[in-house]
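Hey team,

Filing this mostly as a record. A colleague (T.K.) asked me to run one chain through the structure pipeline before their review meeting, and I want the input and output archived in the tracker in case anyone asks later how it was produced. No errors, nothing strange. Just documentation.

Input sequence:
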Amino acid sequence: MAAPTKTQILFAWSGHDPQNRPVQGEVAAPNISMARAMLNHQGIRLTNLQVRRKKRKGRISSKELALFTRQLATMLHAGVPLLQSFELVIRSTPNPHLVSLLERLHSDIEAGTSLNTAFRKHPDHFNPLYCSLVAAGEVAGILDEMMDKLAQTLEKNAALQSKVRSALMYPAAVVTVAVAVVLVILMAVAPVFQDVFASFGAALPLPTQWVIAVSQGLTRSAWLVVPLSLMVTFAWRRGWLSHPSHQQRMDRWKLRLPLIGPMIQAAVVARWTQTLSALLSAGIPLVEALGPVAAACDHSVYAQASETMREQVAQGSSLNETMALTGLFPSVVVQMCAIGEETGSIDNMLARAGGLLENEVHDQLAGLSSLIEPIIIVVLGILVGGILVALYLPIFKLGQVF
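Output structure:
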């Protein structure tokens, strides 16, 4: 069934076919009358027809997508027909959202649609890099090899993302627990001390007054602060951050951050070089390959730079010259690219450059993880300890008086 246009509405229906068998499905039409007429023309006796409720898009992780690609590549390499390969993958997939996606792909391919065209119908899951490599494999008759290259690229990206999450998981957990402890102290413990201090009738030390003021502010405005923070965060992500210029400004700011900025740059450039290497090794011309690379690098600054580089390369400039002009690529990557262009092995040199940057990211992650943990512990220790000392300071002074 063709995808509905912007002016069409998707209706869910159930009824009986001309053989009086119960059937159900979906139909796209401008209005409910047209949908009813279309189904009646097919001999369907309707029992229910209503607008299909929009469902939230199912989450399919990058790791699951990489596993699907690897399974499909393995089956195609073993000589299993494409449709049968999809059927086998569907049976072994536990994620119902991925199963639904694969079933739609299977239906399109069974109807005569090419594999890359079927993938292009789902841009949320299959980016231009994915579709370009599949298209190149179909044209050259080496779909199994292209799927294997694609699986390797996705697996490397998933492994890198997993290592970044693992490195940040412990500091994030420590910060979360510490913030919860501070809030409990300020909102539950500090008010008890405040009642005790009120009975003293003496002036409180300045640090204690600060802590009590913060506690009173949180207690009185907690019901407003939490929903307001959620609303501001939602508006920032969906409104301000969704604008391309704002997203690019944020990405540029991230690249300038100390410690984290160089790590982000190395990770993005590693993904960029490996993606371009995979496209070039598939036989895609450089000018055409830079388009999918711009969409697949997942960074607005490098995406814009890739589009600019594509225009310059189309006008006759060399890749390494355009890379150097952007100022976004490490000199070692530019030099390795220049060597690759001179020797005619640019895809191999880009792959090696990506491997070097991956190792650099791993080293930076290990160093950052070992550095950030003691810093967080010291800062949180000072914060929690300072609050407790401020609360007990009046009691210490009373002890000196008596």
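Quick notes for T.K.: Residues 1-7 have pLDDT under 50 and may be disordered. The domain at 167-402 is CATH 1.20.81.30 (Receptor-associated Protein).
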